[in-house]
Amino acid sequence: MGLLDAFRKDEVVGTKALVCGLEPQTEDWLRSDTLVYKRYYPATTSATYPGIPQLVDALAQKFDIVHVLCNLEGNGMIIDARGNRMMGTDFAQKCCDANVKLLWIASNNASDAYLKGFNS
Fold first, then answer.
1. pLDDT digits over 92-119, tens only?
2. Are residues 15 and 41 in contact, defined by beta-carbon separation less than 8 angstroms?
3. Rounded to two decimals, what is the model's pTM?
């Protein structure tokens, strides 16, 4: 029995995960992260969205986990390639409204941006 097998007893069956990006240059990370999620959550969707509005619309598909590769500005705003912006707390609220259980924002962002954008 390996270490990962010890955690399988608590595995939630049927979890839907969304692994997505807002920047075309994140494709390599997106592929890699998607493979990891699919090992544990077969119902994993992978997508690159052209902008924040399309990402917010995708939340209607009722994902349990949302893993987003995106950039944060220094003030904590999520920004997409088209220049659309959304405060991190607003995006987190949209995820809560869609019953997302785990939100993961992943990229090389400054920790201070997370504190400013997701603190309220």
1. 999 999 999 999 988 876 677 666 667 7
2. yes
3. 0.83
Note down the domain range covering 88: 62-120
Q: Give a yes or no: residue 44 inside a domain.
A: no
pLDDT digits (tens, 9 = 90+) for 1-57: 555 565 555 556 789 999 999 987 888 899 999 999 999 999 999 999 999 999 999
- Asked if the structure places residue 97 within a domain, the reply is yes
Asked if the structure places residue 113 within a domain, the reply is yes
Please report whether residue 3 resides in a domain: no
Sequence-distant (6+) residues with CB within 8 A of 26 are 48, 69, 107
In residues, how long is the chain?
Answer: 120
Question: Is residue 27 within 8 Å of 35, Cβ to Cβ?
Answer: no
Q: 89 near 119, Cβ under 8 Å? A: yes
Longest alpha-carbon distance in the chain? 49
Total structural domains within the chain? 1
Q: Rounded to an integer, what distance in angstroms lies between the CA atom of residue 46 and that of residue 70?
A: 14
